[in-house]
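Hey, I was hoping to borrow your eyes for a little while. No rush at all, and the record is pasted right below:
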Amino acid sequence: MSITGIASRVLRTLPAETAHDMTISALKAGFGPVQRTPDDPILRTRVCGLDLPNPVGLAAGFDKNGDVGAAMLGAGFGWVECGTVTPLAQPGNPRPRLFRLNQDEAVINRMGFNNNGLENFARNFGGQRQCTGTLGANIGANKASNDRIGDYLTGLKRLWGLPDWFTINISSPNTPGLRELQGGDALEELLGRIMEARADLTGDQRSPPFFLKLAPDLAETQITRISDAACAYGIDGLIISNTTTERPDSLQSHYRSETGGLSGRPLFARSTDVLRAFKGAIDGRRITLIGVGGITSGDDAYAKIRAGASAVQLYTALALHGPSLLAKIKNRLAERLRADGFACVADAVGQD
């Protein structure tokens, strides 16, 4: 077993948040996995103008403060999303707030957008931009904010020119009331103000893509309305999905009743069904879907792509199984694409 593999195994014996903090510190110090060989050419793809060596991305939540995006690209991710960052630093919810459900291959978190704030993020993220690769910023609103939409605008303005894309996170279950931005007049106001700011910031230049990150706990009528609004306002893509507040009966771990968002394998079926529903609701209109939730294998990534995702993201499986999982996912995905006669990832998108 490699040194990285041994370290990964040791970290999984520690409390979840302690292990995460130690991982970030090690990556900042230059200790981390490095991919030595290029990705299989069949995995190269283009998403909303972003050229990716492979479609497997690191989801937001791992690198909240923009510290180690370059290191995770070096580890083999095709694209890395940093954040969620809020305008003001905030400690998040009290500990313990991160729980491994090992029996279920799942995690429950109620972190509450803990981060060091926008200025710290901008400094760190700017230092990552010397790397070769695609890095995005996931922005959110402070828990105590009186103008949450204004918080998103603040994030856009401060970070403009740094990330390759922006993700507007309106789906965390751990900031009370945040998910209300996914529906009704609040969604219309959010998108209107976001796109007005985008136009002002862009001017005559090309804008980076804008994605919305959504919850899996949506009714069919909500999916239809969000799809219509996203298309009408010119959102480039939807990231489906964030964690769920539901608790499947199948959960075995003694942590299953903890409050917060559930991620990992139990989320896979629900998030994929919602992804497929969004694909149907969009009905050929020009908007890109990103599949997230419960990916633990190349077969899972392939299923998301066939359900309508142009690319995928993961985080929980990395925390539970270690960095060696990434190469396994990519190798298996390449096998599945070739076995089904596809020349590239884009050819398989939405085939189901």
